[in-house]
Amino acid sequence: MGLSAIEWTESTWNPTTGCDLLSPGCDHCYAERMSMRLNLMGQVKYATGFALTLHENALELPLSWKKPQRIFVNSMSDLFHDQVPLDFIQRVFETMRKAHWHQFQVLTKRSGRLLALSDQIDWPSNVWMGVSVENAAFKSRIDHLRKTGAALKFLSIEPLLGDLGPIDLTNIDWAIVGGESGPGARPLDPDWVRNVREQCALANVPFFFKQWGGVNKARTGRTLDGRTHADLPR
Predict the structure, then answer these.
(1) pLDDT tens digit string along 211-221?
(2) Quick one: 188 exposed, middle or buried, by C-beta within 10 A (0-12, 13-18, 19+)?
(3) Domains in the chain, start-ordered, CATH in brackets?
(4) Which whole-number Å values give the CA distances from 203 to 29, 200, 207, in the listed order?
(5) pTM over the 0.85 mark
């Protein structure tokens, strides 16, 4: 089990590691930086660096974690990467169904493949399925997510790189917004965040503001207009 510093989850589980850059939100990927660091440290799981790698021996790990928790699946990868075979994806979902006492959070930028495979996935009620949307050019990912069989659907609007404009939040159960952190972090305009917050309020969608980001995210904090926003799905 990997305890997580990510504000909206509790633990991480990585049955796959590695990925490749897909869209502007990937430009300063924390997982790539961390993978290369772990590779240099001699961590066996990251022997291939950031190349997509399947980890058969990790497939059933959550079954041994007895304390119920929220688990972020593939914090170091993307389960719907085109190099992950359908049968492996289905085995990950089988584990999540068996480990019914946990809640699993799956996040992808590859929403087209997610939708294409949705009918071949047995969707457990304890899986939260999300897509990343970093700017208005990728709002189509929300439409793909909406058409899947996932029981709970959420948006990770992080790093938010521009004003999203109007958002269709129909059948969306949760929205996370955050700025980019780490080296080269791009700025976050408060009005971009307020736009999402206000639309979530109108649509009665729980809103979670994760961070302003920047090079020192501990200093910039996560308060918006004098308060924290940490709603979770109902």
Answers:
(1) 999 888 889 99
(2) buried
(3) 2-220 (3.20.20)
(4) 31, 5, 11
(5) yes
